[in-house]
Write a structure and sequence with these properties.
This protein has a domain of 56 residues. By secondary structure, the protein is an all-alpha fold. The two termini are 24 Å apart. The longest helix has 18 residues. The protein is built from five helices and no strands. Helix 2 runs antiparallel to helix 3 and helix 3 crosses helix 4.
Length: 84
């Protein structure tokens, strides 16, 4: 696994009412949602990035008002292959 280090002002954490670990998790989820919404990743990859099970990721998509049905034919083939 790759580790990414970022420098952020301490005020970021207090503004979001999150400690650094919660903030990092929220960033992973937000990135996964956005990349999925843009069609850059599949649901499986989004769940992996977010650190969630796929069903949990679908719930998060719904909460963010992002359709879980945004899938290309290629992504569908990949997801069906992953299911085997």
């Amino acid at each position: 696994m790759t580790t990414l280090t970022m420098e952020l002002p301490e005020t970021v954490f207090s503004a979001l009412h999150a400690d650094p670990e919660e903030f990092a998790q929220q960033m992973r989820i937000a990135a996964a949602i956005k990349w999925y919404e843009l069609g850059r990743i599949s649901q499986n990859k989004g769940a992996e990035i977010a650190g969630l099970f796929r069903a949990e990721f679908i719930d998060v998509l719904s909460e963010a008002k992002v359709s879980s049905l945004q899938i290309t034919p290629q992504q569908l083939r990949e997801e069906l292959a992953d299911a085997d």
